[in-house]
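Translate sequence into structure tokens.
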Amino acid sequence: MAVPTGICPCGEGMAVGDAWNHRVLIWHRVPTDSHTPADVVLGQADFTQNSPNRGEDEAASDRLHWPYGVFFHGGRLYVADTGNRRVLVWNGIPQSHGQPADQVLGQDTFTTRNENGGGSPTAASMRWPHSLTLWQGNLVVADAGNNRLMIWSGLPIQNNEPCRVVLGQGNFQAVELNRGEYFPTDRSLNMPYGVTTAGDWLLTADTANSRLMGWRYAVPDLEALNDAPADGLLGQVTYRQKGENRSYGSALRDSFCWPYGIQMCANTVVIADSGNNRVMIWPLETKAAEETHAG
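Result follows.
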């Protein structure tokens, strides 16, 4: 492998985003021995190839370029095909090498790969999709390059289907980090790379602001969450702070330096605090955190 970044359960097995080999590896059973070979590779014709988009300039339904994020839910595999600025969806666990995807989000077609579809940002376009999760039945994509979280109503079924809600920006056309200001707020984001859920909470690693942000799903209408302020904060004392380890000093027990990934494990949130070269583990004192999150 080369920079394996994303990992998720996939049926009775698992999927790994082998990002710099431009492929996703799938084991149909979780390996119990070292060096167990994968059963299926996506993005390449076989296990010996590793060129982005199989060496072609154009993208395609069976090509990948830096697939950093993987997520599995309801029998469908979602891949954040980051370098192609899109999310690919397989409507079942892939069974053959190089199997083409069934659906694309973030691009008009399977062959295009421009940032924001080659035009201005929209509710459908992406710049650097990095991770995915499901929040109260709604798909969420961390579109790090556009400094926002994109939320669909349920699971999108159409190609290039637009999202319904954006967090981190005031509208679907805005994309500047921290909304064009130096200091963040409770509504802004700066390269949010990681996203996960804990019951009715949506949690994101707001990476370049060195903090975690959380929103609680407590509204009757999903669209009422558009541009909502965060309900929770970790890593900084106030929403207006962004310093690495708060004051660009030594790491603290409750500080971060460029947290890159975040996942739930039972009722515990696990954070890859990348700039501090450590993993942080936080038990969540909430009944909701005990719910099943994916798979």
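Note: Helices lie at 245-248.
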